[in-house]
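User: Please predict the structure of the protein below. I'd like the answer in structure-token form so I can feed it into my own downstream comparison script.

Assistant: Understood. Taking the following sequence of 828 residues as input:
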Amino acid sequence: MSIKRLALCRSQGRLFVLLRFAGQDVAALIEREGSQAFAHATTSGSCVPSLVLPVDHGRVLALCPSVSDYERELAVLVLPFLDGSTIDVAFASDGQKLGSIRPDSRVAKLESKVNYKAKPALCALIRDAQRGECCGRYEIDAIRYLPADAGAVWRYEVTWAGDPQCTPEFQIFDTHMNAIDVTVHVFESQVDVPQQNGCRVNKTYLSVEMPQDIRDFVAIAADPTGLIQSGFCAMDGRLYNGMVDDSWNRMKDARADDAAYRRWFEQHRAKPGDLVCQRVASAAFAYRPLVSIVVPCYKTDRVYLRELLDSVLAQSYDNWELLLMDASPEWDAVATLAADANDERVRRIELSGNGGIVLNTNAGIEQATGDYIAFLDHDDILEPDALFHYVSALNKAAEGERPQVLFCDEDMFQKTGEWGQPVFKTRLNVDLLYSHNCVTHFLMVEKALIDCIGMSPEDVAGAQDYDLTLRCLAAGARFEHIAHVLYHWRVHPGSTADGSADSKPYAIEAGRLALQRHFGSLGVHGAVEESETPFVYRMRYALPEPAPLVSIVIPTKDHVETLDACVMSIAQKATYANYEIVLVENNSEVPETFAYYETLPERVTAASGGKGSARVVYWPGEFNYSQIINFGVEHAKGDYLLLLNNDTEVISPDFIEEMMGYLQRPDAGVVGAKLYFADHLVQHAGILVGVRGALAHANQDFSAKREGYLARAVRPGNFSAVTGACQMVRRDVFERVGGYNEEFAVGFNDADFCLRVWEAGYHTIYTPYAELYHYEFTSRGREEANEEKLRRWKREQALFMQRWPEFFLTGDPWLGPNLSAESEYFSL
């Protein structure tokens, strides 16, 4: 019997070959022996996975009526595409050899390209032979590539029909079919999942940690019982590059593509016609304050200063004065350019000597006659509508409620017009500000406020703007973010914008000193430390003594192994000296669970060295997460509450101290931790509300060290919500807002709680310094996999949107209006 190759194509890392087995009813053979039984493939002596699948005879006849005489002789051979390799495939049945073929990957590449152009319908037919045919066989799909700090992580979906207990063993091989040492994590398993065709299947989601970022490999899922046929999924260069690009595009932030940003900026900046309208509108403002723009100048580059002057003279709001504080009169640039401006609003003030950035700035403040004082670096540029937007914001507020400190979005440039690296800010992010100066430019402060709080001292030189911002905050000033890119920060050697601390090492200590003084003025005790990153700080809050009791409330039902890993990680790792673990038992059914409870108190006391205790309280009702949390808190004794999922594990031994530290501030409401999946990628680093019409975990799937937009994944900051999987709150705050809203039985309750805490005047804080694993979905199923759960989730989503409509209408205030509400990665 001969085997004839009729056509082939490649797709998704696989090679599809349409074969004719002359004189053989191959469809019956496949039905009798299975799709893997009579094909044996090898490369260089090593076995290669393969499938032989029947074709859709109706579609074959429609495409090629001439095959009607031998349609039962047709089948599709599926192989992994092993780039650069030749695969030998032999076919046999009942010990009788049927024939063989020897596809070469190099030839297959060219032939596939030709067939896709000449015979696209036939190629689609060949590819579709595998689609949806998972009865009795594992179907594997690579669904995501994710870069890791070392190597890469691949996420896979394995689908099969049949016994749900036949969970696959997963292995990775190179193109020579040598096993690669990888770590495989089972994320979740779903049983009896309905499909569009009416069938029901089982699904397992896997994460594979690869030690190196390998391009070509084969993934194989095998059933050790032999009941389910193996499945495979290959990765080749083309598919790899496509998935890497998809990952980059999905996770890119607003600073990832300067060319894209420049296009965005040109679309959104003020046009000449807009400026004309602004001049008319600003002339009619009810409140027209004089804005004094202070520019310290010392040996200023003439070109830079000329561009600065032009940008100020072009302002569409005209009630301003520009104070050029000339500390180097021997350089005639300032005097010449001020004279050339020929505008009485431009004032050159000659200083007797260079007193440094602080004294030069303070001299400008003293000379200013305006109602507001704005600060502009001598080498930077304003957009022509900067002052218009600032004064417009002042006019929108009632007298006595006007903003006292204003700041805007900004970008960087080396050459005028080549804008890049945008900084899209949010409303004042206090905890991000406590990490670094996230306000910066274009800072404008009410003169009366400066008169009240005083000017910056000399010892904060290089961080005087940070110092001023912090002192305004300590005074209870009203801040407003102007959501327009109005300030261009020049990057050149020696400037802070180039990211180098070498030019101003003194400024790092100055910033630390300013922040330490700020906390001192608030009566918040602790020590501000420098970090490995210049101009980034960490506050180590002092904790009360003796250590107050922290109640760790953990709802739980069965899954004793998962629960024990959580509890014992606390008992064995946590360094905090006084805590109780309150397990809220919720209708467990397995006898082993209750036996576990009997020994738990003694085990926790022993493992913790007496620092911790454990007890179980029994929830009598049906499952309602909010009710269970409230019930657990009622039975807790501590003044600090740590609400924790039972599928978490401690990484940071001092996570309790870290989270509790923030709660020493009276403005702090809820504190959340940085959580990781089992594959060490980020599961939670803050929650954005309204993104894609629901809740989104910011920067999810990042590697541990990946910073993300404005480093928000690795620095503390404010968010609208943090996950209830690990949430710490003071009891007084919890009780003030009435605890969890029991209308949210399963979903959205943690976010609703955070928003009610925010509504009560407190901050919700994410800290990256408290780290835990969160094995999400191991103790309960994903909503999308269950029709009833999905309906309930939709009801709770609707209730949440009804309760907090502003987040869906105007966006999350901690994301900002200029960034996409369709991305959790702070994208344009």
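That's the full token string. The CA atoms of residues 401 and 478 lie 8 Å apart.
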